[in-house]
Design brief:
The complex is a heterodimer of chains A (114) and B (112). In chain A, the strands form 3 sheets. In chain A, strands 2, 4, 5, 6, 9, 12 and 13 form a 7-stranded mixed beta sheet that branches. In chain A, strands 1-3-8-7 form a 4-stranded antiparallel beta sheet, with no helix packed on it. A two-stranded antiparallel ribbon of chain A has the order 10-11. Chain A is mainly β and 114 residues long. Helix content of chain A is 0%, strand content 54%. The radius of gyration of chain A is 13 Å and the shape is globular. Chain B has 112 residues and is an all-beta fold. In chain B, the strands form 2 sheets. In chain B, strands 2, 4, 5, 9, 10 and 11 form a 6-stranded mixed beta sheet that branches. Chain B has a 5-stranded antiparallel beta sheet with strand order 1-3-8-7-6, with no helix packed on it. Chain B is globular, with a radius of gyration of 13 Å. Classes of the chains: A mainly beta (114), B mainly beta (112). The interface between A and B is medium-sized, with 27 and 26 residues.
Chain lengths: 114, 112
């Protein structure tokens, strides 16, 4: 079991560039999510999915797109990177039992937008 | 508006003593609470959780206490070990909710 994997570990972008952060889990979890962590801000939810084909916005969705074509994968797309998107991004997954259960996090992707 | 608050950014404790990390919440709909531990350059790791039907949950050296009337929970680590030095996040969710609301974290340093 690899758990939750994220690629790349680190990325530098120029303003206006686009990129996709990859996330995959091998635990057959229904729920997957993306968070960003900024200094002094804790973790903030960007987007989440409760199953293949179903996605919804979290607290800070602007500038990001997601899709969930399979149970395993949940990529996060930055359409036109901005310096304000410099952050550490974490993907997480969990079972659903009515509500959320404990989420398992990936190791993170550090993104620097110049 | 921050619904989960960890008002102590940092805490220093001697090895072998008790560490108490505190968390307050404002949303009375929250019914599921979790603590995560995070080392630098790693993802958060789930530690322990508690549902609102309980007021205490133990797992080894870790105990979480929930005071619903005060909208307060705490994590006790006994005895504290240097390997416990990390940032601890408190999180909460509503029934059938799809989002975890995180606090800003408390950095724990356990000194030998």
């Amino acid at each position: 079991n690899a758990g939750v994997t994220q690629t790349p570990k680190f990325q530098v972008l120029k303003t206006g560039q686009s990129m996709t952060l990859q996330c995959a889990q091998d635990m057959n979890h229904e729920y997957m999510s993306w968070y960003r962590q900024d200094p002094g801000m804790g973790l903030r939810l960007i987007h989440y999915s409760v199953g293949a084909g179903i996605t919804d916005q979290g607290e800070v969705p602007n500038g990001y797109n997601v899709s969930r074509s399979t149970t395993e994968d949940f990529p996060l797309r930055l359409l036109s990177a901005a310096p304000s998107q410099t952050s550490v991004y974490f993907c997480a997954s969990s079972y659903m039992r009515g509500g959320l259960t404990a989420q398992y996090f990936g190791p993170g992707t550090r993104l620097l937008v110049l | 508006d921050q619904q989960v608050k960890q008002n102590s950014p940092s805490l220093s404790v001697q090895e072998g003593r008790i560490s108490i990390l505190n968390c307050d919440y404002t949303n009375s709909m929250f019914d599921y609470f979790l603590w995560y531990k995070k080392y630098p350059a790693e993802g958060p790791t789930f530690l322990i959780s508690i549902s609102s039907i309980k007021d205490k949950n133990e797992d080894g050296r870790f105990t979480v206490f929930l005071n619903k009337s005060a909208k307060h929970l705490s994590l006790h680590i006994v005895p504290s070990q240097p390997g416990d030095s990390a940032v601890y996040f408190c999180a909460a969710s509503e029934p059938s909710g799809y989002a975890l609301n995180f606090g800003k974290g408390t950095s724990l340093l356990v000194t030998p």
